[in-house]
Amino acid sequence: MNHRNKSRIMFEESKHFSSGVFEVQDSSWKFKEEVAETAISLFKRDGYNNVTVNDICKACGISRSVFYSSFNGKRSILEYMVEKPQHNDDKSFMKFAHADNDFERIWQLFDRFITIAYDFGPELTSTLFIMQFESPEGIRTAIHALDDLFATLANNCAKAGIIDTEEPPDLLSRIATDLVCHELYVWCSQKGNFSLRARARQYAEVAYHVKPEYRMPAEQRDAL
User: How far apart are CA 88 and CA 29, in angstroms?
Assistant: First the structure.
């Protein structure tokens, strides 16, 4: 069995990834994407609290009943967006399958959430943390939903000699996720005045005890 097929099986067997993640995306998915992208643009321009469902419907040219057939409200749009990294299209799967090693796969999963933060910007990303305080749903919960997959990949890294530690992989994964979440929070509070991607990469390497020869060179990391 080649490496690509092994990676696909790992993804398909993980309970954190839906069984249909590799299927062709249908029209309902495309509709949700269009509504969500329009809403995010409004949130970024006018502020999350200043945008109503009516504003979103008007911008999309749809009725409220059509909107509520896909989303329960504004909050569910953010929940939908923050859960997207748990799913895969062909492009993201191919990138995952062709990564150099399993730590790079761990990094790719983290980077999906970081990409959301950059796309949202610090102010809207802060709303994801507010959501976390108000209910179990939020960006920290979304990232921790992948803990089992992170642990599997970390265990593979230990066997391959990529990381050097006797700590349990599941513990390393939780620590790394919390470190990345903390830096995401700091990035929001400081209005995005540092490279979140560069710092998260550095902290993930430290948290997972990645051996020096597998770490990203400082110059390359700082350019992230």
Answer: 13
CA dihedral 123, 73, 32, 182 (to 10 degrees): 30
Length of the chain: 224
Q: Average model confidence (pLDDT) for the chain?
A: 86
Cα–Cα distances in angstroms (integers) from residue 39 to residues 13, 54, 125, 209, in the given order: 33, 11, 14, 40
Percent helix, strand, coil in the chain, to 5, is 70, 0, 25
Distance CA(180)–CA(203), nearest Å, equals: 7
Residues whose CB falls within 8 Å of the CB of residue 199, separated by 6 or more in sequence, listed in order: 183, 187
Q: Residue 23 corresponds to which amino acid?
A: E
Of the listed ranges 82-96, 148-162, 179-193, the one predicted with least confidence: 82-96
pLDDT interval class at 88 (50, 70, 90): low
